[in-house]
């Protein structure tokens, strides 16, 4: 890219340089013309030509200087990764200086005027104009100072005053133009930015850490509260893998414990989306644990008990009610299944299921975060998904008895509910039509999963019955249901 840039720069300099040289040579020739041609030095035509050539020479020189400064700025900005282009204010300022010097040169050298007269006249004009435009001038000089200090650049996300946050798209003499995340343009005077507190969300890099606070009842063990909040935040890493969340205790009191959930966002434009994903995951994790970040209560109701009438559903019943796979079951049937679920507490790092193992059960995630890993032919494990509160895994093993298609590892301590073949079989024997509903929902679930995890499913689906009829036949055979049922 260097050669084309250099060639383009030289072409842009060629015309003003040639004009300056020609005009200078013409002015010098006209100054010597009276003696050589025997003309009067005050000849009107000759004087006009001399003045014109001198003015053109000075203006062409200023034009050449402005073009040369532009070239230097482009080359200085090219290796800068954070700023793709330099502010317009800087070019305007340098152009103005170049042409101001040219006008002073014209006044002194072309029209033979003394500098003292220019200074006396300009001082009066400056005093009058300065008083009338004092606020405008303040903004202009603030813009010049900001340009030299570089507290922000074009493309940065800044907060020049509380409640005003936007991406810098232009820096002019008087103002900085911002565009918010809602695509609204905000024009901020440079004087306000220079004299106030400025927050730059893009410096030193586009990623930054976000903190939001969740208050929970002090009766909840700190270790469990941290685990729930972290697992909920980890659920957001499905969409934003670089969040790297953690949880800290920030404040303790008799009325509650405040936890700080911290995570990194890739850039300010995605902050709202990352907050939403993390908050949704945390609320979902708390809900499935029977908790809520509401004002703390004096008496804590254990999520695993039904000690008071307020607690209408157990976590197991909530999991079944919110799982699409069991939406065809009647509420009484789901309640019966919930009573048969087996709790399993797992430690961080434990392997819940292993790829290739024979199994006949399904797992509901009530608490914690889990990672799905698929072993490729070469022996390399690939993380293909993350699971959080409300998710299920192992449904193919439950419905058809197939070996586990992937391994599931606990990223945090967690609580699972296991549903086995012997728990589901009585309901399918009593109502065989539920088998068809399960297969229909299973096919729908697999289609949704395939869209999100296409690469993994192309490999892992190789041994699965791909058609609805094939899966239904296998389910009936596995549960011993009559073919006509």
Question: How would the blueprint of this fold be written?
Answer:
Layout: H1 2-37, H2 44-77, H3 88-110, H4 115-132, H5 134-149, E1 157-161, E2 164-171, E3 175-179, E4 185-189, H6 190-195, E5 199-200, E6 208-216, H7 222-235, E7 246-253, E8 256-265, H8 271-288, H9 315-321, H10 331-340, E9 342-346, E10 351-353, E11 361-367, E12 370-375, E13 381-387, E14 392-393, H11 395-400, E15 407-410, E16 414-420, H12 421-430, H13 433-452, H14 454-460, H15 468-479
Helix pairs in contact: 1-2, 2-3, 7-8, 9-10, 13-14, 13-15
Task: Write a short abstract of this structure.
This protein is α+β, with helices and mostly antiparallel strands and 485 residues long. Helix content is 49%, strand content 19%. The protein is elongated and about 125 Å long.
Q: How would you characterize the overall build of this protein?
A:
By secondary structure, the chain is α+β, with helices and mostly antiparallel strands. The protein folds into 4 domains: 2-132, no CATH class; 148-200, SH3 type barrels (Roll); 208-288, Alpha-Beta Plaits (2-Layer Sandwich); 315-479, Jelly Rolls (Sandwich). It is built from 15 helices and 16 strands. The strands form 4 sheets. Strands 4-3-2-1-5 form a 5-stranded antiparallel sheet. It has a 4-stranded antiparallel sheet with strand order 9-16-11-14. It has a 4-stranded antiparallel sheet with strand order 10-15-12-13, with helices on one face. A hairpin with a 5-residue loop joins strand 12 (370-375) and strand 13. Helix 2 (44-77) runs antiparallel to helix 3 and helix 9 (315-321) crosses helix 10. Residues 298-311 and 454-463 have low confidence and may be disordered.
